[in-house]
Specification:
The chain contains 17 helices and three strands. The chain has about 425 residues and is mainly alpha-helical. Strands 1-2-3 form a three-stranded antiparallel β-sheet, covered by helices on one side. The two termini are about 10 Å apart.
Amino acid sequence: MRSKTTIGKIDIWLLLIYLALTTIGLLSIYAAAFNEDHPHIYDFTQNYGKQLMFIGVSLVVGFCILLIDAKFFNAFAYVIYGLSIFSLLLVLVIGSKISGSTSWIYLGPISFQPSEFAKFGTALALAHYIGKLDTDLTQFKTKATVYGIILLPMLLILAQGDAGSASVFLIFLLVVYREGVGGKILLIGLAAATLFILSLCVSKWYVMIGLVVLYALFLLLIDRTKKNIWLLTWILIAACAFVFSVDFAFNHVLKPHQQTRINIILGKEKDIKGVGYNLNQSMIAIGSGGFSGKGYLKGTMTKYNFVPEQHTDFIFCTIGEENGFVGCFFLIALYLALILRIIHLAERQRLPFSRIYGYGIACIFFFHFAINIGMTIGLVPVIGIPLPFLSYGGSSLLMFSMMLFVFLKQDANRMNIL
C-alpha cells in the first residue's frame, strides 16, 4: 500500500540549497541596506526586516503547498495560467508606473508584480499541455499552441514596458526543445540575435553584403535544386528584412535608457554618470572585493550606497565586495547545484507533467541567475531582473519559492504514480 503522505519524502538536498540561498540573500540585503539606527534584522520598518517577513510568508506558503494533493497543480494548470493572464491585463488598467514600466499593482500596503506570477502560470500550462498523452509535437497546430502559451504573457508584459521580464519567457523554448520539438526555432533565435548585434555594431549595408556572400557560398555547396534555391532565397530576403527592422526597433521600440544600456555594453558609448552609472559602480564594487573580500559589513561601496538599488537587482555586488572571488564562486556553485539538482530530479519523474515542469523552473532559475550576474559585471545589458532568492522583493521571492515547492511536491509524490 502506497503512503499518501509525501511531505516526509521531499528532496532534502534541494530544500537545503533553497534555505542556504534565502539565508545568504537575507544577510546580503542586511549588509546592503544596513541602517545604524535600526540594527536589528527583524526591524520591519527596514528592507531587511521586510525581507525576513517575506521569507517567513514564503516558507508558510511552501509548507501549505506540500500539504496539497500533488494532482492539484496539473488539474488546475490552465486556471492558474488564466489568472496570471488576467492579472497582466489588469495591471495595464490599474497598474502603477515604476522605473519606466507599468508592471506593479498596489492594493493598499500590498504591492504585487503580475509578471512574476505569469512565469509560474506559464510553466504549469506548458507542462500540462505538452504532458498530455495525446499531444503530438510534430503537428503544426500543437506547435502553434505551445508558442502561443509562451508568447501571450510575453507580449502583455512588453505592453507594460518591461522588456527585461518579457525576455525571460524566451527560455521556455529550451523546454520545448527538450520535449522533442526540432531545434530550428533555437537556430532561428540564435541567428536573429547574431544579426541584431551585428546590425548595431556595424553598418547594416556591411551586414547585407555578408548575407549575400553567405548566400552565394551556400549555393555553391548545396544541391542546387529548385526547392533549395527558393528556400535559400527566402531565407536571404527574411534576413535582410530583419536587418532593416533592427534600426526601426532600436530607435522606435526600445526606450532611450534601454538604447544607452545596449550601446554601453557594445562599447559604442560611455555614460558613467548617467544610465551607465549603476554598471560602472557595480563593477568597481565587485572588483574591489579581490580574492577573499573586505569582510561582512565592511564593504565601503556597499556601506556608503555607491551602487543604487544594490539590495534589489544589484545584490550580487554585495557578495563580490564583502566576500570577494571566493564568495562569488561559492554562490555561483550553489546556483549551479540548484539547477542541476532540479534537472536530475526532473529526469526521474514518472509523470510527464512533473518532468516538463521541472525543466521549466530550472530554465527560469538559470535565466535569472545568468542574466542578473551577467548584467552586474557588464556582460549583458542591465534589464532589471532579480537574482532568485537573493534580491529584495516579496513578489519575486514568493513566486520563486512557490515554483520550487510545487516541484518538491511533485517529486515527493512520484512513487505514487503508476
